[in-house]
Specification:
Elements lengths: L1 H10 L2 H7 L1 H19 L3 H16 L6 H8 L7 H9 L4 H30 L3 H18 L10
Helix pairs in contact: 2-3, 6-7
């Protein structure tokens, strides 16, 4: 048995094959690499089928479980029942539940502040626009008083 094991070990040693049959070993390794690549890399048809399956899943999502639908239908409930249920089931800690309710209470004020800030920033004219408007107003006042546009500021 030991002789058979030794002979198999020598026969399976690729270094001996490379030394004795270099071209045959090179050809066999090239064929093995080609076979491995064709097995691992999907064909264009397989790639297209996978892409179509992803598109179909995106267009027709799986229906949600009943518990998820009920919970998502009323996420901002006033009584906080969804958060209470999460706390009781162990999915949420007490502090997380309290913090979530506090954020829900402050959310309208935060949204109002952000909206007011963005609106004020967008409505505020730049200094150059203000100077141009003042100059145009001065010219109009000068024309209304009957003077020349250059005399309005004098």
């Amino acid at each position: 048995m030991n002789e058979i094991k030794g002979a198999l070990a020598e026969g399976a040693d690729p270094r001996a094959w490379v030394q004795q049959y270099p071209w045959a070993t090179l050809g066999a390794s090239a064929v093995a690499g080609f076979v491995a690549a064709t097995m691992l890399i999907p064909s264009r048809e397989q790639q297209a089928l996978r892409k179509l399956a992803r598109i179909e899943r995106a267009l027709n999502p799986e229906p949600r479980r009943k518990a998820e639908r009920e919970r998502d239908d009323h996420p901002d409930s006033v009584d906080g029942k969804a958060d209470a249920d999460d706390y009781k089931s162990g999915r949420q800690s007490f502090m997380t539940a309290v913090l979530g309710e506090a954020i829900k209470a402050v959310r309208p004020a935060l949204i109002s502040l952000l909206t007011a800030g963005v609106t004020a920033k967008a409505a505020k004219p730049s200094e150059e626009e203000m100077k141009a408007a003042a100059a145009a107003e001065n010219r109009e006042e000068g024309r209304a008083q009957g003077g020349t546009p250059g005399q309005a500021g004098a």
